[in-house]
Design a protein that fits this description.
Elements lengths: L1 E6 L6 H11 L3 E4 L14 H8 L2 H17 L4 E4 L4 H4 L4 H4 L4 E7 L1 H17 L6 E3 L5 E3 L20 H22 L6 E6 L6 H11 L25 H13 L2 H4 L1 H4 L12
Parallel strand pairs: 1-3, 1-4, 2-3, 4-7
Antiparallel strand pairs: 5-6
Helix pairs in contact: 2-3, 6-7, 7-9
Amino acid sequence: MLTIFVLSNARSGTTFLSGIFKKNVKDCTCRHEPYLDPLNYTLFGKPIYFNTVGNDEKLRPYLARKKKRIESFKTSAYFEANHAFLKSANRLAVDYFPDMKLIHLVRNPLKVAKSISNRETLVNKYHFPLRYYRADDGNAYFRWSLTGKESIYKNFDPQKLTLFQHYVIEWIEIENRAIHLLEEFSMHEKCFTIQVSKELNSKSVIKEMMNFLGLETYNNDIVLDCRKNLNPKTTNITKQDEKEFQEVIQELPANYLKIFKEEECYSSLRIFNK
């Protein structure tokens, strides 16, 4: 079975891309974040913590069960667009899915960070159930984000970070994980990159992606009439957001920013050249 995962931050078009696969690809099991399938772990929550602290003994059973569930499907392809992948499985995924192919979604970090912070504020305002989980260290963590204990956060005083800045740092960490995975396991040739939102809304780019992945579509005319996971609050980038973004960039060691100047997929993000 051809297995396809998405390399992505949150709020980067995974819902829309999942819809594209469902409406266009033949003989493919398509999943976004598989909450309704208890045998197919979403990899949110505790697996993120286990990955952060390097507790592979507890993390591997999640991936083993996920692999078993995926193999139980009788279609010729399995696709999952889930931003938990790089948060929980970036180090170990190749052990379980050595022949996987990848789609890398790249969206402007300011828009990502603002959209996620708006979403988290809303989730907390309405006391969304199970939004926090209790980890082995006794602390509570937001289920869908990094823990803040990752090495990259050690460059900052957590008490001085805004929620927006926390997610700027998360975006940078996740993109570094994406490139590291591609380089360490020589998977650049198995990965198709899409710039969000321009290329994600292009029928020609989506058709090119389907050909790259070797997928058969229902017809030649790609259907893009798919649901988007929109925020109730519009994602507007302010001068304050831009200032806070630059504050993060200025404090980070150069090794975290290296990929944005060297990798072609980030060439449109001119903000890193300022």
